[in-house]
Amino acid sequence: xxxxxxxxxxxxxxxxxxxxxxxxxxxxxxxxxxxxxxxxxxxxxxxxxxxxxxxxxxxxxxxxxxxxxxxxxxxxxxxxxxxxxxxxxxxxxxxxxxxxxxxxxxxxxxxxxxxxxxxxxxxxxxxxxxxxxxxxxxxxxxxxxxxxxxxxxxxxxxxxxxxxxxxxxxxxxxxxxxxxxxxxxxxxxxxxxxxxxxxxxxxxxxxxxxxxxxxxxxxxxxxxxxxxxxxxxxxxxxxxxxxxxxxxxxxxxxxxxxxxxxxxxxxxxxxxxxxxxxxxxxxxxxxxxxxxxxxx
Length: 296
Known about the structure:
The protein is 44% helix and 19% strand. By secondary structure, the chain is an alpha+beta fold. Strands 1-2-9-4-7-10 form a six-stranded antiparallel beta sheet. A hairpin with a 2-residue loop joins strand 5 (68-73) and strand 6 (76-81). The chain is globular, with a radius of gyration of 20 Å.
C-alpha cells in the first residue's frame, strides 16, 4: 500500500497535547466525553493508517463526504463511499485508507470518555447519510467547523466545555439520524423543484456537482432543468451553485482563521488561482482584500 510522506493539500488538523487531554479527561464534563484529535483531509491521496490494539487508544469517527476509501477491523474489510461514516472502537486493531483512484475527502474526530462507547456502538460498519430534503448535512458540517475553530483558539476551560457540548450534539446527530432530520422545523408546503435543487446544492456544497448530477436528482433533462432554473432564479444552475460556494467561502473568511488555500480546497476548487479569479468575479475583490475589509 503506497503511503503519503507529507500532508494533504488543504488539510487541517488539531492534535491536543497529552497533558491537556489528561487534564480535561479528569474534569467533571470532560470525563464523560472529550476530543483528542480533530481534522479535515480533502482528496487525501495515499492516506493510510494502521494501529495495533495497544495503539488504538481512542474511538475514531471518519465521515466521508466525497470519494472512496476503506477500513479493516476484526478480520473484515469494508468499502466506504461518499456520504458514509463509521466509528472505530478503541482498543481494537484496525487499518484504513483512501481509494487510490478516487481518494476520499473526510472529516475525522478522535474522542474518548465514559459516554464515548454509547455514541460509537453499532457504527463499526459503513453507515449512510444520504442527502435529501431534510438531511441537514450543511448544519452538521458547520457544527464540526465550530468545534474545530473553538479548539483552534486555545485550550481554555470554556473553549473545551463548548467543544465538548457541541461534540455531544454532533455525535447525537449521527446516533439518532432520523430524529435529527425530523426535528428540523417542518415546511409549511412541499418544496418546489427549484427549491429542492438549491437544497441539494447546499447539502453538497463541498463537492463537484455537474449539470447532469442536478438533472438526475430532479428527474429532468439537463436542458429542461436549465430552462426552468434560469427562469426562476435568473442564473444557470452551475452559476448559482458557484455563487453559493463563494457565499460559504465568505463565511469562512469572515469567521475562521483558515488559510485561503484551505478554504479553496474545502469548496472543491483545486487551484487557488482559479478560486481567486472566480471569487473576484463574484465579489468584485480578491479573497485577501475581502478578508481585510471591516464588516458590520
